[in-house]
Amino acid sequence: MDQILAYPMRESAVVTQALPLELRLDVFLGSIERRALRIAEMATRDRDEALDLVQEAMLRFVRKYRDRPEGEWAPLFHRVLDNGIRDWFRRQRVRGNWLVRLFSHSTEDDEGDVLERVVDTRQPEPARAYADSGSMAAIETALRGLAHRQRQVFVLRIWEGLDTRATADALGITEGSVKTHLSRALESLRSQLGDFHENRE
Amino acid sequence: MKTGNDGFARKIAEQLEKSANDLDSHTRMRLRGMRRRAIEQASRKTPFWFRGTPMLAFASVAAIALTVALWPRPPGPVTEVAATHTVEQAAPVDAQTLDAIDDQGTDEYPIAFEEDLEFYQWLDQQLGDS
Question: Do B23 and A159 touch (CB under 8 A)?
């Protein structure tokens, strides 16, 4: 499972140390901002909220981690963004506007993490979304149907191209958990997007 | 199995990448503005002497508030007045003396009543004896 290829590899985001810090930050943030927005948007289902989260993540990342080695920037940025998303979920829950369903069972190594088990229940069935709007809508619907941790692991490992260790660092979980979540995410996506997979293989 | 997962995951990643690249120009502009603000923040170095200032200011305010709250207070003038007033109120005024004054047909005490209180008490005794 750990051998799964990520798309695309992101070496281009790491630029030479000879350039000024501001320029290197500009290149890095420019390379990551759109995906960060889509990740936040999948979690919040609101573009303005997602933009706020990305803005906050950029500011915090620059304030806290700008002097860290560039090779660590991507997992650090995603850690900041993920913390922002988790805080957003908590605020929504406090306000009573957040509809979630918590599974009654818990996993063995992330037992204390409530967000581990959070599922966004606001979307229609993936198959219906696929029929209505095409493959991207179906994928988004299926991803939103994943538990928060599974979705985060999937997008960081498969889309962002982080390896298992960097993903674990970014999300503050063990490498074993990353593998477990990725396996479950793929299994769930495959079951939900079976038509997508078979029709487009 | 692994090859199937690779292809499946790659197709999803391609779709996600496409959705990120297809963002509208307004959103792209907002993202650019956010990036600029973050980088401007990086350009502003915090002076070393300012880094602990908020904590120092909070500690100073807390110390002043604590000192004021715990500082021993000297007895105030209000307490003295109250004590004096209490002593004056404690001076004995015989009810019979007051009745005798009322018998004189006035609702008001004589002006010098308080000054001659002992005289009126003596007078009351004399009237009682007779």
Answer: no
The answer to the question of residue B70 being in a domain is: no
- Overall number of domains in chain B: 2
b/e for B18-41, b at 16 or more Cβ within 10 A?
Answer: ebbeebeeeeeebbeebbeebbee
Would B67 be classed as within a structural domain?
no
HSE-CB of B44 using CA atoms within 13 angstroms: 9
Could you give the residue ranges of the DSSP H alpha helices within chain A?
21-44, 47-65, 73-95, 126-133, 135-144, 148-154, 164-171, 175-192, 194-200
B15 occurs within a structural domain:
yes
Residues of B in contact with A201 (CB under 8 A): 7, 11
- The ipTM assigned to this model is 0.72
Per-residue pLDDT band at B95 (split at 50, 70, 90): low
Nearest CA-CA distance, residue A188 and chain B, Å: 12
Regions in chain A scoring below 70 on pLDDT: 1-17, 96-134, 195-201
Average pLDDT of span B48-62 = 71
Q: What's the pLDDT score for residue B129?
A: 73
CA proximity to A119, closest of A142, A147, A99 = A147
Distance from CA of B57 to the nearest CA of A (A): 22
Give dist(CA A187, CA A189) in Å, integer. 6
Ranges A52-56, A155-159, B59-63, B81-85: which has the least confidence = B81-85
Q: Is a pLDDT exceeding 60 seen at residue B12? A: yes
- Owning domain of residue B97: 77-129
- Does residue B66 sit within a domain? no
